[in-house]
Amino acid sequence: MATPEFILRLRKHVGHELLWLTGVTGVVVDPGDRVLLHQRADDGCWAPPGGILEPGEQPAAALAREVAEETGIRVVPERVACVVTEPPWTYSNGDVVQILDITFRCRPIGGELRLDRDESLDVGWFSVEELPKMREALQRRIRLARDERGEAWYQPYGE
Protein backbone atom coordinates (compact mmCIF):
# COMPACT_ATOMS: atom_id res chain seq x y z
CA MET A 1 0.00 0.00 0.00
CA ALA A 2 1.23 3.43 -0.80
CA THR A 3 2.11 5.42 2.29
CA PRO A 4 0.56 8.90 2.19
CA GLU A 5 3.10 11.66 1.51
CA PHE A 6 2.36 13.48 4.77
CA ILE A 7 3.30 10.34 6.74
CA LEU A 8 6.56 9.97 4.80
CA ARG A 9 7.41 13.59 5.71
CA LEU A 10 6.63 12.95 9.38
CA ARG A 11 8.70 9.77 9.41
CA LYS A 12 11.77 11.83 8.39
CA HIS A 13 11.47 13.54 11.78
CA VAL A 14 10.22 10.79 14.08
CA GLY A 15 11.71 7.68 12.48
CA HIS A 16 9.84 4.53 13.48
CA GLU A 17 8.35 6.08 16.65
CA LEU A 18 4.63 5.85 17.32
CA LEU A 19 2.42 8.03 15.11
CA TRP A 20 -1.18 8.78 16.15
CA LEU A 21 -3.38 8.63 13.04
CA THR A 22 -7.07 8.81 12.23
CA GLY A 23 -8.47 6.04 10.07
CA VAL A 24 -11.82 5.30 8.50
CA THR A 25 -13.44 1.96 7.75
CA GLY A 26 -16.42 1.36 5.47
CA VAL A 27 -18.80 -1.50 6.10
CA VAL A 28 -20.61 -1.45 2.76
CA VAL A 29 -23.85 -3.43 2.86
CA ASP A 30 -25.70 -4.14 -0.39
CA PRO A 31 -29.49 -4.66 -0.75
CA GLY A 32 -28.94 -8.43 -0.41
CA ASP A 33 -27.26 -7.89 3.00
CA ARG A 34 -23.82 -8.82 1.63
CA VAL A 35 -20.70 -7.05 2.89
CA LEU A 36 -17.95 -5.67 0.64
CA LEU A 37 -14.45 -6.85 1.58
CA HIS A 38 -11.01 -6.66 0.08
CA GLN A 39 -7.93 -8.75 0.70
CA ARG A 40 -5.23 -6.27 1.73
CA ALA A 41 -2.04 -6.24 -0.31
CA ASP A 42 0.14 -5.29 2.68
CA ASP A 43 -0.68 -8.26 4.92
CA GLY A 44 -2.98 -10.56 2.90
CA CYS A 45 -5.81 -10.24 5.43
CA TRP A 46 -9.46 -9.72 4.50
CA ALA A 47 -11.01 -6.48 5.75
CA PRO A 48 -13.64 -3.88 5.00
CA PRO A 49 -12.11 -1.11 2.85
CA GLY A 50 -10.70 1.97 4.51
CA GLY A 51 -7.63 4.06 5.08
CA ILE A 52 -5.97 7.03 6.73
CA LEU A 53 -7.32 10.59 6.61
CA GLU A 54 -5.17 13.10 4.77
CA PRO A 55 -4.64 16.43 6.59
CA GLY A 56 -7.80 18.56 6.30
CA GLU A 57 -9.89 15.74 4.83
CA GLN A 58 -13.38 15.06 6.20
CA PRO A 59 -13.91 11.47 7.44
CA ALA A 60 -16.94 10.61 5.27
CA ALA A 61 -15.30 12.02 2.13
CA ALA A 62 -12.07 10.16 2.91
CA LEU A 63 -13.99 6.94 3.32
CA ALA A 64 -15.86 7.30 0.03
CA ARG A 65 -12.52 7.97 -1.69
CA GLU A 66 -10.83 4.95 -0.08
CA VAL A 67 -13.66 2.53 -0.91
CA ALA A 68 -13.68 3.65 -4.56
CA GLU A 69 -9.88 3.40 -4.81
CA GLU A 70 -9.67 -0.05 -3.24
CA THR A 71 -12.76 -1.72 -4.75
CA GLY A 72 -14.23 0.38 -7.59
CA ILE A 73 -17.53 0.74 -5.70
CA ARG A 74 -18.97 4.22 -5.05
CA VAL A 75 -20.70 4.59 -1.68
CA VAL A 76 -22.72 6.92 0.50
CA PRO A 77 -21.75 6.77 4.19
CA GLU A 78 -25.07 6.48 6.03
CA ARG A 79 -24.06 6.61 9.69
CA VAL A 80 -21.17 6.22 12.10
CA ALA A 81 -21.22 2.66 13.45
CA CYS A 82 -18.34 2.85 15.93
CA VAL A 83 -15.41 4.95 17.08
CA VAL A 84 -12.50 3.08 18.69
CA THR A 85 -8.79 3.42 19.38
CA GLU A 86 -6.93 0.35 18.21
CA PRO A 87 -3.84 -0.98 20.01
CA PRO A 88 -0.48 0.15 18.59
CA TRP A 89 0.57 -1.71 15.43
CA THR A 90 4.08 -2.26 14.09
CA TYR A 91 4.55 -2.64 10.33
CA SER A 92 7.19 -4.98 8.91
CA ASN A 93 9.52 -1.99 8.31
CA GLY A 94 9.40 -1.07 12.02
CA ASP A 95 7.01 1.90 11.75
CA VAL A 96 4.65 2.05 14.74
CA VAL A 97 1.15 3.55 14.52
CA GLN A 98 -1.91 3.79 16.70
CA ILE A 99 -5.18 4.51 14.96
CA LEU A 100 -8.39 6.14 16.07
CA ASP A 101 -10.85 4.43 13.71
CA ILE A 102 -14.22 5.81 12.65
CA THR A 103 -16.33 3.07 11.08
CA PHE A 104 -19.23 4.04 8.82
CA ARG A 105 -22.08 1.90 7.55
CA CYS A 106 -22.29 2.60 3.82
CA ARG A 107 -24.69 2.02 0.96
CA PRO A 108 -23.34 1.25 -2.52
CA ILE A 109 -24.55 3.66 -5.22
CA GLY A 110 -22.59 2.57 -8.28
CA GLY A 111 -19.31 1.57 -9.77
CA GLU A 112 -18.05 -1.87 -10.68
CA LEU A 113 -16.08 -4.27 -8.54
CA ARG A 114 -12.40 -4.14 -9.54
CA LEU A 115 -8.97 -4.66 -8.06
CA ASP A 116 -6.57 -1.90 -7.15
CA ARG A 117 -3.35 -3.90 -7.45
CA ASP A 118 -1.53 -1.47 -5.12
CA GLU A 119 -3.88 -2.01 -2.19
CA SER A 120 -5.96 -5.14 -2.84
CA LEU A 121 -5.22 -8.73 -3.80
CA ASP A 122 -8.90 -9.62 -4.16
CA VAL A 123 -12.31 -8.00 -3.65
CA GLY A 124 -15.80 -9.41 -3.28
CA TRP A 125 -19.24 -9.36 -1.73
CA PHE A 126 -19.82 -11.83 1.12
CA SER A 127 -22.90 -12.96 2.99
CA VAL A 128 -22.48 -12.82 6.76
CA GLU A 129 -22.36 -16.64 6.81
CA GLU A 130 -19.50 -16.66 4.25
CA LEU A 131 -17.23 -14.00 5.73
CA PRO A 132 -13.56 -15.00 5.49
CA LYS A 133 -11.46 -15.23 8.64
CA MET A 134 -10.40 -11.80 9.88
CA ARG A 135 -9.30 -10.03 13.05
CA GLU A 136 -11.89 -9.81 15.84
CA ALA A 137 -11.78 -5.99 15.75
CA LEU A 138 -12.88 -6.08 12.08
CA GLN A 139 -15.63 -8.61 12.81
CA ARG A 140 -16.90 -6.29 15.56
CA ARG A 141 -17.00 -3.33 13.13
CA ILE A 142 -19.08 -5.38 10.69
CA ARG A 143 -21.48 -6.52 13.44
CA LEU A 144 -21.93 -2.96 14.72
CA ALA A 145 -22.48 -1.52 11.23
CA ARG A 146 -25.11 -4.16 10.42
CA ASP A 147 -26.89 -3.52 13.73
CA GLU A 148 -30.04 -1.50 13.07
CA ARG A 149 -30.01 0.33 16.41
CA GLY A 150 -28.70 3.45 14.69
CA GLU A 151 -26.37 4.73 17.38
CA ALA A 152 -22.59 4.62 17.28
CA TRP A 153 -20.72 2.21 19.56
CA TYR A 154 -17.72 3.36 21.57
CA GLN A 155 -15.59 1.83 24.31
CA PRO A 156 -17.40 2.66 27.55
CA TYR A 157 -15.54 4.98 29.90
CA GLY A 158 -13.37 3.12 32.38
CA GLU A 159 -13.08 -0.12 30.42
From TrEMBL:
Its cofactor is Mg(2+). SUPFAM superfamilies: Nudix. The keyword Ribosomal protein does not apply. The keyword Isomerase does not apply. Belongs to the Nudix hydrolase family. This is NUDIX domain-containing protein. CDD domains: NUDIX_Hydrolase (cd18879). Residues 19-150 form the Nudix hydrolase domain. InterPro entries: Nudix_hydrolase, NUDIX_hydrolase-like_dom_sf, NUDIX_hydrolase_CS, NUDIX_hydrolase_dom. Keywords: Hydrolase. Coiled coil: none annotated. Pfam families: NUDIX.
